[in-house]
Amino acid sequence: MLGNRAAYPARVAVSAYTLCMKPPYQPDPLGPDFSQLVLPQLPDYEGPVQAVLVRYLPAPAAPAAGAVLYVHGLNDYFFQREMAGQYAAHGYHFFALDLRKYGRALLPHQRPNNVRDLREYDADLSAALVEIQAAGHTRLVLSGHSTGGLITALYAARHPGSFAALVLNSPFLALNQPWLRRKVVAPLAGALGRALPNLPLPAGLPDTYGQSLHQAYRGEWDYNLAWKPNHVFPVNAGWLGAILRGQRQVRHGLELPLPVLVLHSERSAGGRQWREEFRRADIVLNVADIRRLAPRLGPQVRLHALPGAVHDVLLSVPEVRAAAYAELFRWLAETVG
After folding, report:
1. Taking every annotated instance into account, which residue ranges of this chain make up the domain Serine aminopeptidase S33 (predicted)?
2. pTM for this model (two decimals)
3. Fewest 10 Å CB contacts: which of 13, 207, 233, 304?
4. For the chain, domain boundaries
5. Where are the alpha helices (DSSP H) in 41-185?
């Protein structure tokens, strides 16, 4: 049933992309090692739509193992130069996708992250795959962080056989909210999203996670705060409904036919006031939910918890992300070759 529903959006996505006038790759804000390609899409309820594909230009270590496509999380975009370099050093051509209404792809008339069904992203992912495959890459690894982890898992389920492996970094498989909000308030708000998709909702996340990352505050990373602000972009009821429907599919089981690696922190922490432990814990999601739900993705799931990791495991302190990369490429060598 899942596969039957998926086929139509995928065909539309590819044809819509190929019918558009494709501009050439352009320089990217990340510098001379990167370039970007605008992927125009059909207009939606807000008007013109685009996604942006970013490629890492330095050649991967020989022999090439394949290509990877990375998808960011909520309130996010691709900025991780280190990630691209790590994949290239281990033999992978690296691509990243800024989804519609995020980062490079956000247009002036759009509300950030405003979608009403996660299948809207199928067009962006399919257009990126057309471009990657046209460049001669046939062995593909798909990777997603947080909300991008949920989106990529659902996309892989709708497109069996398209990928050699799936890498998930703290996937957003459940809301991290108290019982009443999670079981009563959020489902009611999500249901309202069908009739009132633009109804604004509080995002519910403090700015402490952003503080823990950006070098202007308490972190080591430099990125565009207009595209990844400390105070999370507002969300609306249509978006929440889309997320809840996607998470429901995971709970029912995706039966992914490919190997899946799930990286996550060993523990979660909470609170709205800054504490030093926020540098070494997931303060966005409850890792117990990831442990509980990740096995429902399919029969070939490997979970790997990293002590001292933050929500985006690959933005943790150097020794933690070194351990994460070691596990990632050990697993890819075993599963992809």
Report:
1. 64-314
2. 0.93
3. 207
4. 2-335
5. 81-89, 121-134, 147-158, 179-180
Half-sphere exposure of 146 (CA within 13 A, CB side): 21
pLDDT in tens, 12-68: 444 454 445 567 999 999 999 999 999 999 999 999 999 999 999 999 998 888 999
What is the arrangement of strands in the sheet containing 165-169, beginning at the earlier edge strand?
Answer: 26-27, 34-44, 47-56, 92-98, 66-71, 140-145, 165-169, 260-265, 301-306
Cα–Cα distance measured from residue 213 to residue 209, given in angstroms and rounded to the nearest whole number? 7
Query: What CATH code would you report for 2-335?
Result: 3.40.50.1820
Structure tokens that stand for 210 in this block: 């952003």
Residue 283 CA, chain-centre distance (Å), reads 17
Which residue is listed with tokens 């759009």?
Answer: 110
Amino acid identity, residue 206? P
Q: Please tell me the predicted confidence (pLDDT) of residue 15.
A: 41
Nearest CA-CA partner of 73 in 304, 281, 306, 313: 313
